[in-house]
Amino acid sequence: MINGNIFWLYFVIRRRFYLLPCTHCRTEDEIAKEVAVDIATLRDPEADADRAQKPEYLVIIGVCTHLGCVPIANAGDFGGYYCPCHGSHYDCSGRIRKGPAPLNLEVPVYEFPEENLLVVG
Ligand code: FES
Question: Which of 12, 20, 87, 103 has its CA 20 to 30 A from that of 71?
């Protein structure tokens, strides 16, 4: 927990993504699907490439942008995250696709200073 926010950190092991404490995979097919989304159709338009510095890593703050519940990974109509509190569906890039949440799941400031090192904040 950093600055009161729960961070879901994905890291790659043989091109598989794991979410702590939940496990999630962002496969090459999922990445391709998110890259192909027409951002003009999105409520909060953001390209996948603008949300993930490396497509195989997705770093987001696990707090629903509606009223702050914690969404469930690998769930919802778009296979990303589902917030059961009021029914917000996010895709595998953490972008809001359906439900009352107004914005995408937040991407925190982060960097990869070295090949195997991720620094958040
Ligand atoms: S808090 Fe997530 S949908 Fe309302």
Answer: 12
The conformation of residue 5, written as its DSSP 8-state character, comes to B
> What pTM value is reported for the model?
0.81
Q: Which atom of ligand 1 is nearest to the CA of 69?
A: 1
Q: What angle is formed at CA 73 by the lines to CA 72 and CA 78, rounded to 5 degrees?
A: 100
Distance 64 CA to ligand 1 centre (A): 6
Q: Which of the residues 24, 66, 86, 89 is marked catalytic? A: 86
The pLDDT tens digits along the chain (121 residues) read: 444 444 555 444 333 343 443 334 578 888 999 999 999 999 999 999 999 888 888 888 889 999 999 999 889 999 899 999 999 999 999 999 999 999 999 998 888 898 878 888 7
Catalytic site includes residue 24: no
Nearest partner of 98 among 106, 107, 90, judged by Cα = 90
Ligand 1: residues within 6 Å at CB?
A: 64, 66-69, 83, 85-88, 99-101
